């Protein structure tokens, strides 16, 4: 065990930050760390928009479903898949790359590139004693987010990362048992998965029960399947395609 | 600057490993780190398949376009987006979640979840002095990869990560200038981007020229646009949809 691994294992999402902005040097170090992540075929499909403007942060907090910590934090980053840069480069060279950009493959590449960069930034922040939380809630209102940040075609905001000095010490919810997510040489049978899910249902039910003084007695299986019963963000397919992505 | 940030900034992909397998404890620590990453709405949409079987590793190396380091390394992980677990959970509860699983939104969530986990594992490995390389090349032949690892419906192998004791000291290619990927409050204008791309073209051209004794004189703009002129992995849309993903 070393400091880095300790940092990684100690992660929990922080949703309450002190009223203390990150200094410019720290922000730059974090972005440098984001840029140091692996990128598919050297394509570098990620753009980060640092939102410092108070009004814009409040708008984003509203778009994300009134999550106050989107506005109240030390710094707020929006991670975008960005093929606009490649399109401009292609125009400079009069090369047509639209089929590549519109492909499902490119959509995977862009999402992975942005996520790797974001996780580098997050771990770097946590190693400095800062807290972080991912804001998938931006995807509640991507048209509005995109308009607010002037994102052109081929640029898709994927999520935000709020960073700041922690003002809370939240617990750590138990993850799925390792045997349920880490297999050897081949995928597990349905029966094994069912057994592991039953075990995990019980473990998480006990966790919630303890935390709520017995008020909540349902575990992960119950919680997750209920939350997935109605599809969320059903506008996503059309919106993503309107950005010229994930079409082919 | 601390150890973690030093580790992150020192990253370069390693494509030659010593013939020395990772011990079981190290593998478990790495998977624990992967599991500690943020996950959208506690959904935990990532499954990791550790490939230890020599024959399977050689097959994967072949599928990835004959990349020998897919077979020759200290350990090989395949990261999958996995909604099969949620489908089994839903069946246990007789809840219908197929519209959620098939959505573009879920496809983003699953890709992000897997990438965050993989990046945690990668940084943890590098903090231990190991080297890593992402293998997007698995996506050359996903049907074959999926069959080899017995992945059922709703499970999509996204990429591999080869880990091992480095047996090479590759250089570090210059990333895009920070001003070209980090914007404040809004997206940058086309003109600014063009200027930055011209600057980067020159910088990378000089880098390649130095490395090749003047044989290669083209930079990133030339290289990337040429490589994107013909779309890759055009079967991806159909394959992904055949897995019941990214349809709605």
TrEMBL record, chains A, B:
InterPro entries: Flavin_OxRdtase_Frp (IPR016446), Nitroreductase (IPR029479), Nitroreductase-like (IPR000415)
Keyword terms: Coiled coil, Flavoprotein, FMN, NADP, Oxidoreductase
Domain of life: Bacteria
One Pfam family here: Nitroreductase
Secretion signal, residue range per the UniProt entry: none
Keyword Flavoprotein appears in the UniProt entry: yes
GO molecular function: oxidoreductase activity
Positions of the Nitroreductase domain: 9-165
Keyword Oxidoreductase: yes
Coiled coil: 183-210
Family per record: Belongs to the flavin oxidoreductase frp family.
PANTHER family cross-referenced by the UniProt entry: NADPH-DEPENDENT OXIDOREDUCTASE, OXYGEN-INSENSITIVE NADPH NITROREDUCTASE
Full protein name: NADPH-dependent oxidoreductase
Organism this protein belongs to: Fictibacillus phosphorivorans
